[in-house]
Amino acid sequence: MTDFRSKRSILVRGISAGAFAAALMVSTSAFAQTTSALRGHVEGASAGTAVTITDNNTGQTVTATVDASGNYFVPGLRPGTYRVEAPGIEAETVVVPVGQTVVYDIAPPAPASTGGQEVVVTGRRGRNEVRTATITTNVSPQQIENLPQNDRNFLNFAALAPGVTVSPSGSNRQVQAGAVSPDQTNVFIDGLSMKNPINHGGLSGQNFSEGNPFPQLAIQEFAVNTQNFKAEYEQAGSAIITAVTKTGGQELHGTLFGEWQPKAFFGRPYFDRPGKANNRDGSREKPDYSRWQYGADLGGPIIKDVLHFYGAFEATDKVKPSGNVDLRPPVPANLISEFNGSYPQDFNQKLYFGKLTLFASSQDTINLSAFIRDESNIGGIGGTSVPSHGGPINNKVKTFQADWSHRGDNWLNELFLSYSVVENGARRGSEGPEIVLSAGTDFGTVAALGAGSFEQNDSQKSWTIKNNVTFYGGAHTVKAGVKVAINKYERLEDNRSNGGYFFTAANYTGFDTSTPYGARINVLDFEPGRANNTQIGVFVQDDWALDDHWTFNLGLRWDFETNAKNENFVTPTDVATALRNYPGWKAAGINPEDYISTGDNRDPFWGAFQPRIGISYDVNGDRDLVFFAGAGRYYDRPLFITSGIETIKSRHERVVQANFCTEGGTGGIANCATLRAGNGGVLPRDTLVWNPAYRDVEALRAAAAGLGTGGDIWLLNNETKLPYSDQFNIGVRKRFGEVQTALTYSHIRSHNIFRFVRGNRFSNGWYSRFLQRDAGGNVIGCTDGGNTWIQDNFPDVDYAACPATQGDLAGFNGKLNIGDNSGKAVYNAIYLTAEKPFTANSRWGFSAALTVQFARTNVAQELANNDEFYNGPAVDAYGWGWVQGVEKYRFVGTGIFRGPFDTVISGTLTMSSGPAFGNVIFGLPNQPQEACCYGNMGGVFFPDTILGYETLDLRIAKNFKLPWGHDLEASFAAFNVFDTVNRNYSAWGAGSGVDPTFRENGTVGNARSFQAGLRYKF
Fold first, then answer.
1. 21 falls in which pLDDT band (50, 70, 90)?
2. Cβ distance 871 to 789 under 8 Å?
3. Pair 759, 918: CB distance under 8 Å
4. d(C-alpha 775, C-alpha 773), whole Å
């Protein structure tokens, strides 16, 4: 060991020199997101007095010196429990949560008694810093371990923060805050941003996954910053989550757990129960369901006080409710007999995390870690889709990171390097073309056979290097940083490259023996959309404690991306020509040059400067009553999926719909002679004479390409802007004994919300037309139908009496979608919070968060997982309304209590107004003939009950101390204890009609369910 220590001292000298050089760089938020700080005052101490802070887990020690005013400050501490001591004073234990500055003042020693008795001096209890404008909610290890939750997704606990909701759906667990979508959140784990830059959801892998983003067992604790976070935080327009993982300590410790939910414990959705709306006759039996969640972790020393390790594994094996295929006539009886029934759609996930921690010296700590996520399940089966039409949904994440922190005299440097690979998508589950059976020849679906027509996959590879440096001492703590991330993005979106054949169901006997009436196929060589993008971020932050009353948090951040908006894209020549000659755009005043990219007319945005300021006033200088206010600008980034869609739709996808005819028109197929007679002696442009050779997909592709028709075109505006939010808050914090309370007013204005909107226009500039007919059905005129209609396909039939013609872009017969980021949102809210932390030494604790909010937007579209504004030609076509999916009020309360017989009882109560939802109306008298319906998909209504959503979850755990000193915990949890019916609210259901019912036969969240668990700890 002596030899190793001497070698380590040589290493340290080299490390220190390198760290000082790194500190001279302009640096970024490397690990600041997941470290904490400790500050305080030592009464009576002279300048230079040493305060020793020791990590109870790892045994690592940091020494701070008292300044001339008797104050000490230690930044860059790993969250955890510390022993704090000063000369002549007995050590005290202080808990330091993630991302917090804890204040711990040390009282002077009492005079020695003449009796020679030992003097015991106790410091004041440590308190989280309240002199800040940031709205932060800390989720402690005790809450993660004890509060009930149904799926071991640590993101569930983000709902404890005011202004934050977590989607109750198990299919894509996402966090939402403010008046914007989950896309504008960000999650940091051990300082590494887990942002999804390609697709929706905010967090990589959560856009359509029911899995967990990280093993909860490995999460030590985390914090939710709802608003006005500091300049070190990036790429988030609403809320951020910062989590820290566990580290191996001085002793070997481990956990083995299992949680079980069998079919009997699984609560059946209310409307699927016998006698209810979806199961009136009771013939639908309770579907198969079971879930095992299990895992283990182990941590401890390899070389005590020098090299420690930690590893965790978690898995979920779930048998989900089956996909029920329900084919009905006119589907042939033999297919109904073959395919109708239930098909299991199992879900399996494996999560691995490992970390090595080297304490190279008392000044230097190096961490190496790796994380692997691997999950798969089957989707797309059920209803009219048979098993071959479904496919696997995969999610694979690999992350490797290294960080090194070096502590100098009044400065701290943190260097971070990571490499990550993320892939997730839904693939086809079988080879071959799609086979669709229709009731007629309208390209509808009564049975979907063969392979699926669509598959997608997102891929991201990123190298990230970050460095930040903190200088402290005196009244100022200054932190500065730089980040460089080199990214490769790929968006695969394969629509009908395998071809799709459409048959009339009544005449279908088999693919090789039946004649299709039509087909759809991509006639271009398919390729994914790809891009390289380099991100650069720079920030500086000054936390200035002017005196015991005033504190100022002053920050400035700047972000830059080389290819955020598909800057190198070149619009194909045929598309550009068609746009320049499109009469509808000229009449509507749309400049085609705004959407035609030459490869050098889309400039990167250099102006993402983000000033942030916070001010707090401590009335008495004792952190008991504090007033605070803050304001700042927060840029996010556009998702690469928008660039990928533009590239794929314009360059690699041209879906042609071909109609078939036969000479004689047998088998329900159009007669070629009849078509020629009605079209001047030639076949219509979109029609082919059926040839059995077309059963070969490549032969079909070649023939369809010869028709000269095209599909959809999606285009970005060359001046597409980055989304951002301007935030302001003002509030007060007051402590009542052990209970910390806060009252906050929050105001957020969000800008540049993006959607693809309908770009088709008729020759006179109209978006829709209402045809006028005489008694014989002849068109005698038309009027402007307006902009508030869902209209997927523009008519390709023109009438002499109607001036609205040529709605399709010349050479294309699909949708023309164009980017519009003129969306805005305004958010006003009141947050009221109270908390008494539950700790290892307390008998009880609670938290409560009440949010009363008013979220308004001019984007009348669903909030989450949406690229397309399919209900109009502009995002503001419906004016201002409520934000779909956001509630008016919400309360979340938790409690943890130590019961008798070594039990712990806990619960979570959630109550809310229920979300805003939209309005769809079919068959209005002024509805354009080509429109589906009126569709305001934003927030038009709220549930007509005081509580639109409420649930109470409870958990009880009993600990058994085993003879050999280990612990065995048995637990039982009940979710939605009162079996409350929490309805789903959507525009298509509860909001449908002129006089909507405010009801639909679907639910969200859990019906009353139970779960049993065992946990072994040593």
1. very low
2. yes
3. no
4. 7
3-state secondary structure of 655: strand
- Whether the pLDDT of residue 116 is over 80: the answer is no
- Distance in angstroms (rounded) separating the CA atoms of residues 572 and 567: 15
- Rounded Cα distance between 449 and 447, Å, is 6
In 10 A of CB 821, how many CB atoms?
Answer: 21
Residue 109: pLDDT band with limits 50, 70, 90: low
By the 10 Å C-beta count (0-12 exposed, 13-18 middle, 19+ buried), 431 is classed as exposed
Residue 49: closest CA among 22, 12, 89? 89
Identify residue 328 by its one-letter amino acid code.
R
Tell me how far apart the alpha carbons of residues 233 and 401 are, in angstroms, rounded to a whole number.
19
pLDDT in tens, 461-502: 999 999 999 999 889 999 999 999 999 999 999 999 999 999
How far apart are the two ends of the chain, measured CA to CA in Å?
28
Closest CA to 719 of 867, 868, 595, 879: 595
Residues 463, 476 contacting (CB under 8 angstroms): no
Tell me how far CA of residue 268 lies from CA of 156, 271, 272, 978, 983, in angstroms: 22, 8, 7, 14, 14
Q: Measured at the alpha carbon of residue 144, what is the angle toward residues 357 and 831, in degrees to the nearest 5? A: 115
The answer to whether 633 and 539 have CB atoms below 8 angstroms apart is no
Q: Are 526 and 16 in contact (CB under 8 A)?
A: no
Gyration radius of the chain over CA positions: 31
The tokens of 596 are what? 């035609």
- C-alpha 552/C-alpha 630 separation (Å) is 10
Locate tokens 């660039």: which residue?
643
One DSSP character per residue, 81-130 reads EEEEE-TTS--EEEEE-TT-EEE--BPPPPPPPTT-PPP---PPPPEE--
Going edge to edge, which strands form the sheet with 71-77? 71-77, 36-41, 101-103, 127-128
In the beta sheet, which residues pair with residue 757? 818, 869
Q: pLDDT for 171-205, tens place per residue?
A: 678 999 999 999 999 999 998 899 999 999 888 88
C-beta separation of 130 from 733 below 8 A: yes
Percentages helix, strand, coil for the chain, rounded to the nearest 5?
A: 10, 45, 45
CA separation for the pair 955, 972 (Å, rounded): 6
pLDDT of 724 above 80: yes
Q: To the nearest 10°, report the CA torsion of 861, 862, 863, 866.
A: -90
Q: Report pLDDT for 841.
A: 85
**Three-state SS for 903?**
strand
Is 884:875 a contact under the CB 8 Å cutoff? no
User: What average pLDDT does range 402-408 have in this prediction?
Assistant: 95
d(C-alpha 435, C-alpha 54), whole Å:
68
Of 489, 482, 368, 369, nearest to 421 by C-alpha is 489
Q: Please state which of the ranges 126-135, 430-439, 741-750, 851-860 shows the lowest mean pLDDT.
A: 126-135
Burial (CB count within 10 angstroms: exposed 0-12, middle 13-18, buried 19+), residue 660 = buried
The amino acid present at 523, given as its one-letter code, is V
